[in-house]
Amino acid sequence: MEHTYSLQEPLNPPCNNDTKVFILVLSRRESYINREAIRLTWLKDAPNGTVLRFFLADQNIKKNHRGDFQVDPDKVSPFKLSKFMHEEHKHYDDTVFLKGIPDTYANLHYMVHAAFQWQQTFCPQAKYVMKTDDDTVVHLERLFFWIKIKFDLELDERNPASCFGNALINTSPIREKSHKWYVPEEVYPHKKYPNYVNGCTYMCSAVAIKRILEACPRVKAINMEDVLYTGIVAQEAN
């Protein structure tokens, strides 16, 4: 599983030894309203120990009929999007640009890989890593409650490399070529996926994320990031 991208360094150190949960939010470049809604609602009174970053892919670049590169017109806002995003980044210091990964569904697993790598590089102090999307609401007080009474005990008593979420069990690859989640047999030949957690929102220990990244080179990638990282690669990482 190879893809070339660069990790944007933060303006300021994002985490410290008190950081409990690092939340990575996948967001479209043009989805400022969603990001602002998160800042003004469920992130506003976040418990101490919470760090959140929005991860944004590159603009989708295509070739026209002459072979020249052009920006996908569907991704261009009426205002100067790049300048606006730069101002947003300077003001909030909570956006991370994933340079080298075009904003397409097929690249979703690369976006998540880059976000995991960013956390491991710039926020290694976090105990947990949550992946979610910018159209999701997270009740952070309840999350920290369950971390205290359940998840911390799970890591301490059973397995320090664990993932938590809505488990999907005994699911099969889709072989229909026209389907969004089509996976050819030469990529994944097995009849069933390993158990995995739904990609809308899930949380793993930072130890698990480290092991997942280490195991990625040994696995052939599919574009469904939840199956890939919390199922196939997690199984490879044991």
From TrEMBL:
Q: Top EC class per UniProt?
A: transferase
Q: Which GO terms describe its cellular component?
A: Golgi membrane
| Topology of this chain in the membrane | Single-pass type II membrane protein
Could you give a GO molecular-function term held by this entry?
hexosyltransferase activity
Q: Is Zinc-finger a UniProt keyword of this protein?
A: no
Enzyme Commission identifier(s): 2.4.1.-
Family, similarity comment: Belongs to the glycosyltransferase 31 family.
State the protein's name.
Hexosyltransferase
Q: Which organism is it from?
A: Meloidogyne javanica (Root-knot nematode worm)
